Fold each of these.
Amino acid sequence: MKENTYYSESDHGPWHTANLGEFTLEEGMTLPELNLAYATHGKLNNARDNAILVPTWYSGTNKIMEQVYVGPGRALDPEKYFVIIANQIGNGISTSPHNSEPPFNKGSFPNIRIADDVRAQHKLITEHLKIDTLALVVGGSMGAQQTYEWAVRYPDMVKRAAPIAGYAKNTDHDYLYAQTLIEAITSDPGYNEGKYSSHLDVKEGLKRHAKIWSVMGFSTEFFAQECWKELGFTSVMAFQTDFMEALFTQMDPNNLLCMAWKWQRGDVSRASDGDLSLGALSYQSEDLRHAHRYRYVFYGIEDCQREQEMIAG
Amino acid sequence: MKENTYYSESDHGPWHTANLGEFTLEEGMTLPELNLAYATHGKLNNARDNAILVPTWYSGTNKIMEQVYVGPGRALDPEKYFVIIANQIGNGISTSPHNSEPPFNKGSFPNIRIADDVRAQHKLITEHLKIDTLALVVGGSMGAQQTYEWAVRYPDMVKRAAPIAGYAKNTDHDYLYAQTLIEAITSDPGYNEGKYSSHLDVKEGLKRHAKIWSVMGFSTEFFAQECWKELGFTSVMAFQTDFMEALFTQMDPNNLLCMAWKWQRGDVSRASDGDLSLGALSYQSEDLRHAHRYRYVFYGIEDCQREQEMIAG
């Protein structure tokens, strides 16, 4: 694996890596080796029924999920739960364009779908960690897409699901938004169809990508109330350059594009011809016979709901 | 003047042109000649008190304002009012980067402020049309910025003001948004610091600019309710390519950048050190002694308010 200093265990770890071996993707291609990196907090109880799974959002790693949600007395309390944070494929920690070997590296990394992440995580949870029930799956944005997919695909295993700020089936509007992020990167001549030698060749594109994130990723109220002050910045421009651009220019463009493609196409109803209505989600597995349960009602733990309200508010 | 076929009178006219002669801009530079193009509908009554002024929004011309608001029984009824639609500086119809002569053409066109438009329109209304009272100033987005500026700058002349979806002082969030539009254009190698030979050299940048407009310029509900169907399109992608991209790729990049710079800096409180509080808007003209009146309460005609609710809803 090649390294990008941003994706280091000293900054984002510690993490464990599960080698899931050969893995056939939803789009048909087979990866010779799929590594899923994950971090855990707390202890699995004797009944093995206190595990919480947290998939990551776009560009996020296990570290940011920990910082946002995990801790004694916080939404995901490791004194009560065994919290498993699973890095999504392409996020730079799990198998990703920048850390793969030819012919599947860089711009030649295959397209990944939300269902690939969820199937890989299922393998991790059941085969590697020997856990057969999840007290909760919770995630925001792309983490919510994975949460919905978990609930529809493995309903008997998911006791509670709390998708935060995400869709069961991605919308046209959101697809277009992700497209502006993609094109901010691919329009940079330094991108060179993914064959750049350093992510810094694409610095200008990554900066534009960061700027579009600032506009759409934060609310009008975030700017009206000058919430960036709470993050320690003295002006919007300082927040933009020293936080948003500084963050995203460290990342690998192909990694981001891998996640953006996946995000655009998140859809739990792929096997029901796009029908999200009750009963339509029959899928081709007996495990999914109760899938419709998850269409309208999702339950999170109390703390998590409070966190969700805070975020939504 | 050089021509861009998009900005033709056959498509956007008929219009009149008022040559306002030499015009010193807010930023200090003097344009040798400022032409303000405007279209009128209806007739000025004998009391000369039924005039409505409509400034244009970003990229819009007198034609779109007519199509949206003007007609018998519509918000701005030419059977009752004398409707004057004034093309903003830089929109391609009034004096703009693409139709100016060196040394003030293309990327060398000077920076324009909202107050320049309003001062020029004031000259047009009072000196060319000999009108000294406006029954209403109404406009959306950048048209709202001009409406606010009119109300603060010439309060005794503006009987009613209806700014729709715009700010008296532009926000940080909106500034950043306009910046993403600017950079979608300037990042295109074909832009060449404004020295392109044809607007089509910047086609890819203009398409990205159109895409960002689709995401932020329309509401989540517009996409959720598939309102693009009402515009005659069969898919979001058709709406995106055949309407949004087809529209914006006809325009001149320097014209758009001129308007975007202006939009970012709209602020009626420039003369009160950024203070928008009651009483602070004293400006340096006796005409503005009632400026504070316009801080919180704006009145539109009934029809116009209904239109505004429709747009806001």
Note: The mean pLDDT of chain B is 88.
Amino acid sequence: MADRHRVVILGGGFGGLSATHKLKHAPVEITLLDRCNYHLFQPLLYQVATGSLSPANIAAPLRQILAGQKNARVLLAEAVHIDAANRRVILSDGAVSYDTLVVATGATHQYFGHDEWEEFAPGLKTVEDATAMRGRILLAFEAAERERDQAKLKAWMTFVIVGGGPTGAELAGALGEIAHDTLSHDFRDIDPSQSQIILVEGADRALPSYPPKLSEAARKMLVKLGVVVRTGAMVTNIQAESVTIKQGDRTESIPTRTVLWAAGVLASPLGRILSKEAGATLDNAGRVVVNPDLTIPGHPEIFVIGDLANFSHQTGKPLPGVAQPAIQQGAYVGKLIQARLRNKQLPPFHYFDKGNLATIGRGAAVADLNWLQISGWPAWLIWVFIHLLYIIEFQNRLLILLQWAWLYITFDRSARLITGKNPLPLDL
Amino acid sequence: MADRHRVVILGGGFGGLSATHKLKHAPVEITLLDRCNYHLFQPLLYQVATGSLSPANIAAPLRQILAGQKNARVLLAEAVHIDAANRRVILSDGAVSYDTLVVATGATHQYFGHDEWEEFAPGLKTVEDATAMRGRILLAFEAAERERDQAKLKAWMTFVIVGGGPTGAELAGALGEIAHDTLSHDFRDIDPSQSQIILVEGADRALPSYPPKLSEAARKMLVKLGVVVRTGAMVTNIQAESVTIKQGDRTESIPTRTVLWAAGVLASPLGRILSKEAGATLDNAGRVVVNPDLTIPGHPEIFVIGDLANFSHQTGKPLPGVAQPAIQQGAYVGKLIQARLRNKQLPPFHYFDKGNLATIGRGAAVADLNWLQISGWPAWLIWVFIHLLYIIEFQNRLLILLQWAWLYITFDRSARLITGKNPLPLDL
């Protein structure tokens, strides 16, 4: 055991876990390191933020996932530095040596140099982000119920979502349902269906990464849920009680107390460390430009995969920051490590694009399967099926299915808790 | 509507909600005020703290519960003062006037004058308490996995629960299961079943409010789960790395990093305000001594119910701080308010003791139904049935049942997330 090849994997997301699984029967000693003790199914995080699911439904303890994989150990720790020269990962409280390193620490959101916006426009990357966002949305309705001033009331009942990609569109759709259905009988002084939900997107259509036909289908679904879609619009300022939008030459300030941030991805800071310590090249978003085999130049022992990697060899542009590339890259790295142990090589990584899915509310979704583009009910059923399939842990599949069925029938979102320190003072 | 009798109910727990429900068809205008936006089913809070259930499973949004009760409105606010002379409740941001006031703000835990213990020995009254306790328990095992020093390792794997009432016994039982079953394959360097779990109780037996026969049955169940039950033992000090226990003349310091507090109840601070503003009498635990009709002397318009009330007219001592008295008192107050509106009176409140139940792990519980005292499997089935019956919201019943069935079969606790700011630094 002592002289086994040591693989250290940073990050227990889709990429890191996929690499770990692929190495299950390999003669290696794996250390999977993460700051969280669970794997998070990020594609459903917006459902926690909008009260449909509980955090535990979309998170599975890493130790439990890997309980049966004897060559893997889990370390709950934060990697603060990579000492590439000595092949060591420096933790906040110790160090781990590696023979092969897989960096899969993903990305977070960024505010394009306006970090001061974060306070007013929370993003959605972690469980804590999701419960805080849920609290803000619910508190806005609570505040509205007690507000007498008409202008202030309107600001509480106006929700602006910045970014019209899948996360933004899904958030907007869920908010539309909350306002029109879930909360419809809950208040006495306000009518939640009078809420204004505005989705702001810089490109000329929502879901710009989808074919135009599906963007248009998504737009129609959003409008049906009462969402105003503003395309070609840039956010130029966010303050406690307003957001400023520039559309062409026109600048407009929208009074709102709730801005949700679904734009701007910034790669994990470990990219910058790899750049400094191992000479890796970063792109604009801080992603590490990788070789065709997902290593970094000059360091065949360091792989970078998932949202942190910029792999442009196939299409000339980086792969999208979703689960599929990360999963496939993790599996590729697992295979390559084993091939190398047998002194073999593999052809370069090749991404197989299975397609993209986004859901816009109950029974409504768009699916781009490359060979088939559909929207509405059939797309939604595919979405449900795929997401249940990929959720790790059988119990969670059952729980999620039950809650979705319940939501579908009753519109009732039961995980509507305001927890933690109130993210917003009710300063009326 | 404007001249309807105004009932203000402080607290959306068992008592407040029961009173609200009883008034459903009464010609009154109810304002239910709570700091949380949900009703919490506290008897199952320990299952959140030990990773079996998610917070949303045992919490139902107050607005949703009361969506159909048109004469009730919910106010998310904190009552900071009661102006009894002018019949007004002062909020942190406003005021509400009442004709009848029902105070049902319950109790929290206390440290018998040692507030400095709270940092090291968290209690269990809120959702936030439960998720923080869950995090501490899981982090202790994580820290143990990385600890090389044998003495320190032992301290991480020693869990001390202070208080051998139902909450303490249930926590200890669940911890025993976690250590012996749930985590058994999760770690590589430690064996969780080597954990020491110590339940400390001041009385001469665990569950002192139960008949001795059931205490003995509970003790046996705890021992089977690897719990050491120390009775006649007082905690005299709690520090970051140890707890000091006095048993008879013997004082002992037990090295431990995880102390859970399940002792010492302190009534809500509104009791003290009622004492100052309305001349109410308080008992040692800060509870308000109430009249036979649950009002306070000199103020027939102010009712105090549930954990905050000391009602000793029936048995000579206060009713236990559990759900049943609160529910029955809430219903009584609801009926009395309606009787008064018709210029009628009611006989004094009478508590009907349906019995007590506590569960000690999988398939093991004790039930004191007064006419019948049982333990083991049959008691556990009664426990499951009763708890599912009293959980508000049908969806939660299904979800809880499914998760219990899963837990029963697999020992797997899926809600094992460490969330929020790590309650404990991993300072190894």
Note: The two ends of chain A are 64 Å apart (CA to CA).
